[in-house]
Design a protein that fits this description.
97 residues; mainly alpha; 4 helices
């Protein structure tokens, strides 16, 4: 009976180690997806602020003021600015105009 208990204990330790390694690999595999999802969320916030800015502005200067006000304020100010400058098609000339 003691031999059976030892074999079960050894098997449990082996299974536990396997599961720990499998979880660590899964986390490492999914980290890029988690980061991408976070960036997509920030981009969605930027698009929402752009929508508001386009609705309020009637001239190009007014649009630029509204964009700066929308993306440079609030709790995610740094993240929004980063998303704005990393976005495909970003034009630094227009952002500083």
């Amino acid at each position: 009976m003691a031999a059976l208990a030892i074999m079960v204990g050894v098997a449990a330790i082996g299974v536990n180690r396997y599961l720990v390694r499998a979880q660590a690999e899964l986390v490492q595999t999914n980290l890029p997806a988690i980061e991408l999802a976070s960036r997509i969320g920030v981009a969605v916030e930027v698009v929402g602020s752009l929508e508001e800015a386009f609705g309020r502005a009637d001239t190009r200067a007014g649009l630029m003021r509204s964009l700066r006000r929308s993306t440079d304020s609030g709790p995610d100010r740094g993240r929004l600015a980063e998303a704005r400058t990393d976005a495909p098609g970003f034009c630094p000339r227009l952002a500083t105009a």
